[in-house]
Amino acid sequence: MRRKELLKKVLPDLPKIRFSGHVWKEGVLFFNVAKGKGLEGIMAKHAQSAYLAGSRSRQWLKVKTVLTQEA
Hints:
The protein has 71 residues and is α+β, with helices and mostly antiparallel strands.
């Protein structure tokens, strides 16, 4: 939660970077709106999880609007 507060203050205003507030209990709707706008996807996170630089966590999930395979 603290990291998100800091990001809101320091993120640059660029077309490909968007800050979004918390979406509680409306994740599916939020995903569908992101998909409708042609966005890559959303991040689903446990609200109290910690950011782990350089590593992946089950607490933070990238949900893509278009399924692709990276090899």
